[in-house]
Structure formats: structure tokens, C-alpha cells
């Protein structure tokens, strides 16, 4: 889907616009909020027949997402749907579990600000015999802030701008 803001229940989402492939390729796409990770993820997904594992896509499938602050309301649930949960939900199915059990290529767009989490997921995928590719979408934080503000103005989807400067800064 050209515009991920249009993803809703039954329309758009994790699957590529091409046939799914089972080559055990994983693309871990990291970068600041509003840096263009979703666009890069979409291109990788279509070129490699990969499922996009993005909790932001899953959020749009929940009716509560439409409410004010809806993205925050469904944050935990959408992450569990895509990546699985902790106890007592650890045994529940997730999109990640489904993709790995079926050897599907995957794309994982994340901020990637916690290196230990990036490494843990990459090592977990390597143990499942995946070839893991790390892709950095680099964008100056000032440009990312402007893009995040523009996105908020158009869509109402808000990322606290202080997070980009103070937490995810790239200087």
C-alpha cells in the first residue's frame, strides 16, 4: 500500500504486493521516527517477498486506534500481535512466530535505539537459520523532527518531538 496511514482492518498491512518468498532473509530496518523506515520496509518487502513485522501496522487494525491517543492505547496489544508477549502470553501465536515457522522472508522496521534488543532479535533469527541484514535509514534529527511534525499536522499521529532530540538523537 502506497500510504500506510490508509491501513485498516481488512485493508493493507503486513503482506508484500508480490508473492511471499521462503528464503529465510530478515531485514532489520532501524532509524529515527519519521526517517522513512516504512518506505524502505515497503520496498524491501516487495523486492524480497517479505512480511513486514511492524506493530504500527497492527495498531491500525484495532478499533480503539481511531480514538484520540489511540496509538498509545493499543501499543502493548499491537506489539504482542506482531512480536509475541511475555508471560502469561508467551505461548500465544504472533506474526513473527508464524513467519519464522514458515521460513518466510521478513522486514522489521524499528527505531533500534537499544542495541541489546537489536542484537537479541538478530541472534534469535540467526538461531532459526535466518540471514539477518541490518539496514540503517539515516536522517538528521532536525529533519526527522520536521517530518514528524508534518505527519502529525496531516494525520494526527504524534511522536513526542523531545524523544527525537533527547532520546533517539543521532549527534
UniProtKB/TrEMBL annotation:
The keyword Hydrolase does not apply. GO terms for molecular function: ATP binding; kinase activity. Keywords: ATP-binding, Nucleotide-binding. Residues 23-166 form the Zeta toxin domain. InterPro entries: P-loop_NTPase, Zeta_toxin_domain. It holds the Pfam family Zeta_toxin. This is Zeta toxin family protein. It comes from human gut metagenome.
Amino acid at each position: 500500500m502506497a500510504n500506510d496511514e490508509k491501513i485498516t482492518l481488512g485493508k493493507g498491512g503486513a503482506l508484500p504486493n508480490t508473492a511471499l518468498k521462503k528464503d529465510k532473509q530478515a531485514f532489520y530496518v532501524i532509524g529515527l521516527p519519521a526517517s522513512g523506515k516504512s518506505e524502505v520496509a515497503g520496498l524491501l518487502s516487495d523486492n524480497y517477498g517479505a512480511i513486514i513485522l511492524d506493530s504500527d501496522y497492527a495498531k491500525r487494525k484495532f478499533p480503539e486506534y481511531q480514538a484520540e491517543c489511540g496509538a498509545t492505547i493499543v501499543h502493548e496489544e499491537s506489539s504482542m500481535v506482531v512480536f509475541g508477549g511475555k508471560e502469561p502470553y508467551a505461548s500465544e501465536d504472533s506474526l513473527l512466530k508464524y513467519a519464522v515457522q514458515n521460513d518466510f522472508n521478513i522486514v522489521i522496521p524499528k527505531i533500534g535505539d537499544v542495541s541489546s534488543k537489536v542484537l537479541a532479535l538478530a541472534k534469535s533469527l540467526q538461531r532459526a537459520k535466518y540471514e539477518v541484514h541490518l539496514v540503517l535509514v539515516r536522517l538528521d534529527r532536525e529533519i526527522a523532527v520536521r517530518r514528524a511534525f508534518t505527519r502529525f499536522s496531516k494525520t494526527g499521529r504524534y511522536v513526542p518531538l523531545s524523544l527525537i532530540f533527547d532520546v533517539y538523537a543521532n549527534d
